[in-house]
Structures are given as structure tokens and as C-alpha cells.
Amino acid sequence: MIPENPYLLLTPGPLSTSKTVRAAMDRDWCTWDTDYKSIVQKIRESLLDLSHGGEAYTSVLMQGSGTFSVEAVLWTSLKPKSKILVLSNGAYGQRMARIATSMQAATVVVEFPEHKQADPETVEKTLQTHPDITHIGMVHSETTTGMLNNYAPVAALAARWGKVFILDAMSSFGGVPLDVKWPEIDFLISSANKCIQGVPGFGFVIAKKSALLECKGNSRSHSLDLYDQWETMEKDPGKWRFTSPTHTVRAFLQALTELENEGGISARHARYAANHQTLVSGMEKIGIKPFLETKDQSPIITAFHEPQSTAFSFEKLYQLLKSEGFVIYPGKVSQAATFRIGHIGHVFPEDIKRLITSMEKIKFW
Question: Among 199, 222, 188, 179, which residue's Cα sits nearest to residue 60?
């Protein structure tokens, strides 16, 4: 008999899932059968509904982690003469830039401080300086710090200047309300094991059809050719080019059902926001301050300053909290000593209150 989970995952994903999502994986599926392919199609349609994309958009599922889907979008959308502007204020913006440069794509990277939003004025000046830029890419929820980047002004600039806009919404889609049509997003990227609360195994892209149709034959990667994956799923609805993660796919359908039952994205956002507020309030009472200003904090994950005490050790905190039934994340901020606590997944304010009680109990600094 498989034991119950020994701890709650307070991370930005993979995250704690419901028993019913995990139970959905308890059978095998044949990828050629119409019952399985109908599951894939239902997922694709649901993702479009959640994004408000309508007829102008389509969705594509891609095997692998979310980063595979980021790379698939870049391989597929960037042509030999394309030039991408990547806006970065954390590790995941840097990752997008690294992928682009490793492809030998012409890349302009504008770095902003990790505690600051991307500045639209700086973006526009960069577009003026580099008129040959064809694409703009940025991260919505930068889990390095917990920053929720305001992508709307940048998307509006991309539309005004006629650039393809790529949004890495990996850890935000499904947990933060948005509309891909306003302001217009050409390619939105996310993953099964984030705010929709599925399990790892595939990512997905919500793409503007007209932008995707421009991509035929672009990709120099066979496996990460997003256009070919989409064309296969369109010609034989629900069929993947290569072996699909069947159990993960079925679990994701269950996760989508549970999102709908909860009240949709707005209700899930409210729960995540309550988790975040409960966490920050409780941590401040024991003297631990968040890294970001309140206006920039996301409902996804929060970075906290480490206590300024020689007795503090993240590894010790991690192990003590794990023994209490919680797993947290180490820091990733380059200029400050931090640690991170996620508040997405099958997690509720009552769980966060238990965490705070445990923090008070084990406090050793």
C-alpha cells in the first residue's frame, strides 16, 4: 500500500496535488484509442477557454517540463533573421535568454534589478535602438523572487511596434486571471504541474493561430517543433507526434475539472492570495520580512530575507520544517540571502497557519 504524502510541497511546482488528481493516474491508456484522444482534445479546448482565446487562438501540448515548451516556442517562432528582445529580472528571464543565445539567435537582453518591474520606457527605447527586433519575450511570474511582472504595457508596446510577444506564464496561468487577446499575447507558455494543479509531464502553449502559421518549417529542432506538434494534433485530433505522457494527461483533465468546481481562475486566485497574505502576516509576526514590496508580490511564491543571525541556517530550517510536514525552497536571489515559500497547489490558508505554528515551534535563531 502506498503511504500518504509525508509532507506538503510549498514550492512553485511540482506542487501538492489532490488525492483525486493522483487517483486519476491509476490505469493505463492507449494513445491510439479515441477515448484517450478525446481527453487530449478536451484539455486543448479547456485551455483555450481559460485563456479567453476563442477562434483566433489554438493550444498545443508538448512533452517534457515547462522549459521544453519555452524552448519549443523559441525554436519554432524564431527565423534565421529574427532578433529577440528578452526582458529579465530573475533566473527564468535569464533562462529564456540563454536558450535563445544557445540557438545562436540574435538576442538583446535587458536586465532589470530583481526587485524591480520591467520599465516600459526602457523597452521602447530599446526598440528604437534596435529596429530589427522581431520578438519580445518575458516572464509573467518570476519565481526567483515572487515578482508578478506587469506584462500588459510590454505586450501593448509589442503590438504597437509589430513585434511577436512571448509570455512565459509558467507559474501563473490558471492562478492569475488574464486574457490572451487583451493585451495581445502571441505565444503563452505554461505547464501541467503549476496553478492548474496537475502532475509533471508536459507543458502547453496557447498560440495565436496567425502567428503559429508563420512558423511552418522554422524549427531546427525535430523534437521541439511546435508547429509540427500542432499540425499533428489538428490532422488527427488528440494525437501526439511521439509517446505522450498518458497518465499525466489524464490527471490534468481531473485537475481542470477541479479548477472548474472550485469556481475557475478567479476563485483559485482568491485562495492563493489568501494563502500569501496569511503567510506574510504570520512570518512578519516572527520577525521574517518578505524580499519584495507588497505591490510586486505574487500569489504564487514569496521570497523572504533570511534572519540576520549567525545561528540561522537554511539547511537546518529546511530539515526541521520537513520533519514537521512541510517542504520549502532555497533562495535564488543573487544580491540577498533569501529563502522561498510557495503557496500554490492543493494548499489552503489552514495549511499556512499550521506552517506558521511550526515556524514558531522550531525557531532556533
Answer: 188
